[in-house]
Amino acid sequence: MSLFGNLSTEGLEKAGDRLGGFSTLESDIYPAKIKVAYAGKSNTSNAMSVTVIYDMGAREYRETYWVTNGQGENFFLNKQDSTKKVPMPAFTHVNDLCLVTTDQPLAAQPTEEKMVNIYDPELQREAPKAVQVLTQLTGKDVFVGVIRQLENKSVKNDSTGKYEPIADTREVNATDKIFHSPTKLTVSEATNGATDPVFFNAWLEKNKGTTRDKRTIKDGAAGGPKQGRPGGPPQAAAPGNAAPKSSLFGNK
Hints:
The protein has helices at residues 89-102, 187-191, 198-207; strands at residues 28-41, 48-55, 60-66, 75-77, 85-87, 111-120, 125-134, 141-156, 163-179, 211-213, 217-218, 221-222. The chain is built from 3 helices and 12 strands, in the order E-E-E-E-E-H-E-E-E-E-H-H-E-E-E. The protein has one domain. The two termini are 28 Å apart. Helix content is 12%, strand content 38%. The strands form 4 sheets. Strands 1, 2, 3, 8, 9 and 10 form a 6-stranded mixed β-sheet that branches. With 252 residues, the chain is mostly beta strands. A hairpin with a 6-residue loop joins strand 8 and strand 9 (163-179).
């Protein structure tokens, strides 16, 4: 039985392909092999995550995707139409990752307890820990569109218990899009029957070598609506993809 079996895409808005406005990676699309993908959960809420460790040849890249909010939901309500459930972006990334590598959504992925080296803050080093691994993703090839971006660092407010941005800046990487290997198609393109990976090249043209500035505090002054991700599980702001009814990549 899948650990994420309740995270269905049924009833969620379908996403299209959108060009969104340590030593970090340059913004680019990287060929990668999945070393391991494992489930996690917040210590303070019902938020669930999937951490993926990618082998990118010259280096390893890992990212934790928070696939639900604190209530365990993989969606938020559309501000303009509260009857529409919009999937969280991190959920969409992981769901797409599952589809392009196994042709099955996250909700159908079996898990198995395995030992994985994970950073232990008390030991201040990596140590083996028993986690639920999404076994079917191990060893699969994929293309990952990675963005380099600037964010404000955050600190925990002792009064509210929430993480809040401060003026200090950090440079981070974040997944922006997942592509099938070797076709370079997105899930949206495959769902619509496309055979030419148009979005792959469009993404490169817009994003390769760029740095996104998602800071809300610049030069010590707060500016504009909050856009960056706070500390703890990130909040979502863009739609994902519904699970297909038939095989997308099985014959490609």
